[in-house]
Amino acid sequence: MKGSEPIPITLGPARRAGDRPGTDRRLIDAFGRVATDLRVSLTDRCNLRCTYCMPAEGLAWLPRREILTDDEINRLVRIAVERLGIREVRFTGGEPLLRPGLERIIAATAALRPRPDISVTTNGIGLARRAQALADSGLQRINVSLDTLRADRFRSLARRDRIGDVLDGLRSARRAGLRPVKVNAVLMRGVNDDEAVDLLRYCVDNGFELRFIEQMPLGAGWAWRRENMVAAEEILVRLSAEFTLTPTREPRAGAPAERWLVDGGPATVGVIASVTRPFCSACDRTRLTADGQIRSCLFSASETDLRGLLRTGAVDEQIADRWRLAMWGKAAGHGVDTSGFAQPSRSMSTIGG
Ligand code: SAM
Ligand code: SF4
C-alpha cells in the first residue's frame, strides 16, 4: 500500500545519563524531541465499558481526594502553556464529559496566551446537550469514539445501549460548529472488522473525519493479542475495495494519523498505526493523569507526581522544573511490537487516551 513504508527512527543521540534539560525552558527530552501537545485526563471514570478498555464491573476508581480539582488542572495547564511551550491541549479520560466543570476548564484554557489549540476526546454520551456550551467556552474541535454503527453490536461492545446518544452527539457537535468533528474507531478481529467500509461511508456522508486506531496493549483485562489486532495495512486493503485512497503525503511532524484522500477528496480518512508504524521519533506529547501524574509516554513504566507539589505550596517554576525533568527522561520508543515489551500497569482509561 502506497504511503505505508516503515517510519525511520531518526532520533538524535541520547545525551549522557544524568544530564538535565539545561537552559531550554521547553519540554525537551534527551533525544531532542520537544513536547508541545498536552493530553489531560480529567477523570478515570466512564459511563461505558468498552470491552477492549474496561471490565464490565468498571475499575477501582481513584478516590475523589486524589483527583485534581478544576483549579489545580487550570493551574497546571497554565504553567504548561506559559512556561513550557505547550501549544495544544486535549482533554480526555475516562470520559471527560462526566466532569461537570469541563466548560469552565476549557474557558480557562482558551483565555491563556498564547491561546492553545483545544480539543476533547469523548465517547459522545451527553454531547448532544453540551456541544453548544462547549463550543461557546472555546472548544474548537472534537473527537468522538464510535466503533460500530450497529445498535446490537454497540450494546455488546460498549456494554451499554447508547448508540443513539453517540450519533445525536455527533450531529450536535457539527451543528455547534466544532470543526473538524473526528470519529475514532478501533477495529477488532471477528468483532467489528467487517465495518471499516460502513464506518467510512457514514463519516464521509456526514462530514466527519474518520480515524482508525490500531488496538494497543493497554486494556484493563490485559487481553491484547497481536493476532487479533487489525493492523493499518489490513484496514487500508479493506477500504481500498470500495474507495480510491490517495496518500495526502503531508509532513507527519507530531501527527500520529497518516491520512488518505477518499475518492479524490476533500474527505479524508486517517489511520493511527501506533503498533505497526510507531511515530515515537516524532512524538510531541506529554500526559497529565487525573490524579496529577506526568507520563512522558502512554507506555511509560514510571510517573512523576505533580499533585504533591501542588498541594504543598510549590511555586509555578518548581512545578515547571519537575515537569521538565519528567520529560527529559522520555524513552526513545514504546517497543510495543518487540518481544521485551511490558504492558504498563495503568490502563488507557486511567492514563487518558
Ligand atoms: N472515553 C473517551 C472516548 O472513548 O473517546 C476518552 C477516553 S478513551 C480511553 C480515548 C480513545 O482511546 C478512544 O477513542 C478509545 O477507543 C481509545 N482506546 C481505548 N483503549 C484502547 C486501546 N487499547 N487501543 C487503542 N485505542 C484505545
Ligand atoms: Fe470509556 Fe472511552 Fe474506555 Fe470506552 S474507550 S470504556 S468510552 S474510557
UniProtKB/TrEMBL annotation:
<dbReference type="InterPro" id="IPR040064">
    <property type="entry name" value="MoaA-like"/>
</dbReference>
<dbReference type="InterPro" id="IPR007197">
    <property type="entry name" value="rSAM"/>
</dbReference>
<dbReference type="GO" id="GO:0051539">
    <property type="term" value="F:4 iron, 4 sulfur cluster binding"/>
</dbReference>
<feature type="binding site">
    <location>
        <position position="182"/>
    </location>
    <ligand>
        <name>GTP</name>
    </ligand>
</feature>
<comment type="similarity">
    <text>Belongs to the radical SAM superfamily. MoaA family.</text>
</comment>
<dbReference type="Pfam" id="PF04055">
    <property type="entry name" value="Radical_SAM"/>
</dbReference>
<keyword id="KW-0479">Metal-binding</keyword>
<feature type="domain" description="Radical SAM core">
    <location>
        <begin position="30"/>
        <end position="256"/>
    </location>
</feature>
<feature type="binding site">
    <location>
        <begin position="285"/>
        <end position="287"/>
    </location>
    <ligand>
        <name>GTP</name>
    </ligand>
</feature>
<dbReference type="InterPro" id="IPR058240">
    <property type="entry name" value="rSAM_sf"/>
</dbReference>
<dbReference type="Pfam" id="PF06463">
    <property type="entry name" value="Mob_synth_C"/>
</dbReference>
<dbReference type="GO" id="GO:0006777">
    <property type="term" value="P:Mo-molybdopterin cofactor biosynthetic process"/>
</dbReference>
<dbReference type="InterPro" id="IPR010505">
    <property type="entry name" value="MoaA_twitch"/>
</dbReference>
<dbReference type="InterPro" id="IPR000385">
    <property type="entry name" value="MoaA_NifB_PqqE_Fe-S-bd_CS"/>
</dbReference>
<protein>
    <recommendedName>
        <fullName>GTP 3',8-cyclase</fullName>
        <ecNumber>4.1.99.22</ecNumber>
    </recommendedName>
</protein>
<comment type="pathway">
    <text>Cofactor biosynthesis; molybdopterin biosynthesis.</text>
</comment>
<feature type="binding site">
    <location>
        <position position="53"/>
    </location>
    <ligand>
        <name>[4Fe-4S] cluster 1</name>
    </ligand>
</feature>
<feature type="binding site">
    <location>
        <position position="39"/>
    </location>
    <ligand>
        <name>GTP</name>
    </ligand>
</feature>
<feature type="binding site">
    <location>
        <position position="121"/>
    </location>
    <ligand>
        <name>GTP</name>
    </ligand>
</feature>
<feature type="binding site">
    <location>
        <position position="145"/>
    </location>
    <ligand>
        <name>S-adenosyl-L-methionine</name>
    </ligand>
</feature>
<keyword id="KW-0949">S-adenosyl-L-methionine</keyword>
<feature type="binding site">
    <location>
        <position position="297"/>
    </location>
    <ligand>
        <name>[4Fe-4S] cluster 2</name>
    </ligand>
</feature>
<dbReference type="GO" id="GO:0046872">
    <property type="term" value="F:metal ion binding"/>
</dbReference>
<keyword id="KW-0547">Nucleotide-binding</keyword>
<dbReference type="GO" id="GO:0061798">
    <property type="term" value="F:GTP 3',8'-cyclase activity"/>
</dbReference>
<comment type="subunit">
    <text>Monomer and homodimer.</text>
</comment>
<keyword id="KW-0004">4Fe-4S</keyword>
<feature type="region of interest" description="Disordered">
    <location>
        <begin position="1"/>
        <end position="22"/>
    </location>
</feature>
<dbReference type="InterPro" id="IPR050105">
    <property type="entry name" value="MoCo_biosynth_MoaA/MoaC"/>
</dbReference>
<feature type="binding site">
    <location>
        <position position="280"/>
    </location>
    <ligand>
        <name>[4Fe-4S] cluster 2</name>
    </ligand>
</feature>
<keyword id="KW-0411">Iron-sulfur</keyword>
<feature type="binding site">
    <location>
        <position position="50"/>
    </location>
    <ligand>
        <name>[4Fe-4S] cluster 1</name>
    </ligand>
</feature>
<dbReference type="InterPro" id="IPR006638">
    <property type="entry name" value="Elp3/MiaA/NifB-like_rSAM"/>
</dbReference>
<feature type="binding site">
    <location>
        <position position="52"/>
    </location>
    <ligand>
        <name>S-adenosyl-L-methionine</name>
    </ligand>
</feature>
<keyword id="KW-0501">Molybdenum cofactor biosynthesis</keyword>
<dbReference type="GO" id="GO:1904047">
    <property type="term" value="F:S-adenosyl-L-methionine binding"/>
</dbReference>
<keyword id="KW-0456">Lyase</keyword>
<feature type="binding site">
    <location>
        <position position="46"/>
    </location>
    <ligand>
        <name>[4Fe-4S] cluster 1</name>
    </ligand>
</feature>
<dbReference type="InterPro" id="IPR013785">
    <property type="entry name" value="Aldolase_TIM"/>
</dbReference>
<feature type="binding site">
    <location>
        <position position="94"/>
    </location>
    <ligand>
        <name>S-adenosyl-L-methionine</name>
    </ligand>
</feature>
<keyword id="KW-0342">GTP-binding</keyword>
<feature type="binding site">
    <location>
        <position position="216"/>
    </location>
    <ligand>
        <name>S-adenosyl-L-methionine</name>
    </ligand>
</feature>
